Amino acid sequence: MDVALALAAAALGAAALTGCTGEDGHGSGHGDGSGGAPPVAEGTLEELAERAECEPSVQTDADELRQANCTTAYGTYVLATFATDRGQREWINSAKDYGGSYLVGRKWVAVAEPDVITKLRGRLGGEVEAGEQHSGHH
């Protein structure tokens, strides 16, 4: 279960980065004034980061999970890619326990504050999901 521990640690780190705001996190569906999100991006961690205008700082580089921190003009976020759809869904389900806002594409997810997610969605497409709303957890 080393993968489960790595996923839980990644979720905790992502939640800490986003500050566990407990905000609603549901995006409006509007990107950078483009009137909606583009088609959902696909690709490697580096390809997704380039599309989001980020130079990724890779934190995890495993077969099943690659994760990087990104800082752009519109904010800081965590970007992760997964080898399988199941691995992605397990990671998201674990991470949501820690709060935060999630932008979800096929085999990738970005975690950030809601306003950053909205802007990032304008570049990567995807669906917005919100984590649990609570405070003082762990």
Number of strands: 6
Anisotropy-based shape? globular
| Backbone CA Rg | 14 Å
The portion of residues forming beta strands comes to 25-35%
Query: Quick one: biggest sheet?
Result: 6 strands, antiparallel
What average pLDDT do the residues reach? Answer: 79
Structural class: alpha+beta
Termini gap: 21 Å
Largest sheet, spatial ordering of strands: 1-2-3-5-4-6
Q: Oligomeric form of this entry?
A: single chain
Any overview of this molecule?
There is one protein chain. The protein has about 140 residues and is an alpha+beta fold. It has one domain. Helices cover about 35% and strands about 25% of the residues. It has helices at about 1-20, 45-50, 85-95, 115-125; strands at about 55-60, 65-70, 75-80, 100-105, 110, 125-130. A 6-stranded antiparallel β-sheet has the order 1-2-3-5-4-6, sandwiched between helices. Helix 1 crosses helix 3. The longest helix is centred in the first third of the chain and has 17 residues, at about 1-20. The chain is globular and about 30 Å long. It starts with a helix and ends in an 8-residue tail after the last strand. Residues about 1-35 have low confidence and may be disordered.
